[in-house]
Amino acid sequence: MRLKIYGYSDDIIGTEITRPDGKVSRDEIGSYQSAEPGVTTLRVASIGGARAMYVHAVYDGCWSFAPALVSGDCDNAPPIPPWSFTFAREHVYSLALTIDTGDDLVTVERVGKD
C-alpha cells in the first residue's frame, strides 16, 4: 500500500492512498483551523492501530512534511513504523511525502481538529 501526502493550496492537504489491488482513494484535509497557523499534524496508523506515526505538515509558502513519533516523550514513544519514505516535488508550492506501508492498510486523520 502507498500513501502520498501533499499540499495544493495554502490551507488544504491532499492524501492519496493506493491499495494493493490498484484502487486509489483521495481525500482533502483542511488546515485552516490549526492551533498554530501554518502547522497541521496528521496521524497515520495501520488499521487496528498497531503501528502509528505523526506527520507534521508545515506551510510557509511551500508545503513540507516531517515524519514524527506519536508522542513527545522520545524515551517511551513507540518507534516510527518500518515503512519507507520518499520526498518529491509535487507542485510549485508543495513537496510530496510518499509512504510505502508494505502490507499495512492505513488511515489518515487530522490531530487536534477543532
Query: Number of helical runs?
Result: 0
Strand order of the largest sheet: 3-2-1-8-7
Fraction of helical residues: under 10%
Instruction: Provide mean pLDDT, rounded.
Output: 89
Q: How many E-type strands?
A: 9
Task: Give me the strand/helix succession.
Answer: EEEEEEEEE
Radius of gyration from the CA trace? Answer: 14 Å
Structure classification? mainly beta
* Distance, first to last CA: 30 Å
SSE arrangement:
Elements: E1 2-7, E2 12-18, E3 24-30, E4 39-46, E5 52-59, E6 63-68, E7 84-91, E8 94-100, E9 106-111
Antiparallel strand pairs: 1-2, 1-8, 2-3, 4-5, 4-9, 5-6, 7-8
Task: Describe the model.
- The chain has 114 residues and is an all-beta fold.
- 0% of the residues lie in helices and 55% in strands.
- The chain contains no helices and nine strands.
- It has a five-stranded antiparallel β-sheet with strand order 3-2-1-8-7, with no helix packed on it. The chain has a four-stranded antiparallel β-sheet with strand order 6-5-4-9, with no helix packed on it.
- It is globular, with a radius of gyration of 14 Å.
- The model has no long low-confidence stretch (mean pLDDT 89).
Quickly describe the structure.
The chain has 114 residues and is mainly β. The chain contains no helices and 9 strands.
